[in-house]
Amino acid sequence: MPEVSALEQLPVAQARAGDPAAWDALFRRYQLPLYVFIFELVREEQVALDLVQEAFIAAVRHLGSLRADEKFGSWLFGIAHQKCIQRWRQRREILLAEIPETPEAFDDGPDELLIRREQEAAFMKLLAQLPPPQRAVLLLHFVEEFSLEEIAHITSAQLGTVKSRLHYAKRALRKLVLAQDP
Amino acid sequence: MKTPREVLLARHQAAEPKLDAIRAAVVLGLNPHSESPRAWAAGGWTLWLRGPKTLWRELILPSRRIWTGLATVWLLLFIINVSQRDPAGGGAGHSLRSPAVMMSWQVQQRWMDELLADRSAAPEAVRPRTVPPRPRTEENKLMAA
Q1: According to a count of CB atoms within 10 Å of the terminal CB, is the N or C end of chain A lower?
Q2: Domains of chain A, earliest start first
Q3: pLDDT by residue (tens digit) across A71-91?
Q4: CA-based nearest distance B15→chain A, Å
């Protein structure tokens, strides 16, 4: 989990009290990961920036609905995910270009996936080619290393579905890495 | 070698100044002297106090299809209600007082009176007998004669 200590020290309680400095710290912590997540889903810079702003404003307005302060990160990403879905619906994009859920064991192996510099472009290209639901799960896994349960909560999906999506996405990435290995 | 997280964040590092500007704008909009985030979060009735523009933006606009649907249903109900009214404005009472109905009612009333009159006449069957009572044997003799 990245920056676990920072996550534990997030000033959510102060933000609840309306402290602007607390909100500034919260937004500073999440602005780039949130932007990466949104941009890689909507693939348009201006739209991604607009959605980040909308997510921030929604967070300020609805912080009262957050029950556990330590869940602020996944809660904020959940808001952002909803914004992306709304955007897709407005554009009538196909949301469920879905893969079948597999009951087989998930032999994903070690989570650590390292990418060499020459693989970066191919990695980004492959990421962009994944269906949006798989891409969302993979981004949440990579960018914030959310747990499967948290990802299921953020994306409003079943745990098994999340496992399946992550399995297929990681398998595709692993193929890419292995294919480009000398 | 980089982790996917490092690759992704590095790719979008250039957006950081724009994100700083967005963050600053949102935090500036908090304005603790006028309206705290808690008041925002309270929502509900405070929405009504923030003026029609806010009401429109936050209550109507996000669910505009639902509101349009409801408005259409209300309009249809109103039209149906208006179209079913008597144009003369008299309503049900007036239609009862029309000549044809009144005539029919009078005929029925007359029939009803006749029926009731027949029934009232029935008790005349127990009118007093003019011949004084006598034993049945004497009556039989008279009949035979």
Answers
A1: C
A2: 4-90 (1.10.1740.10), 117-180 (1.10.10.10)
A3: 999 999 999 999 998 888 877
A4: 8
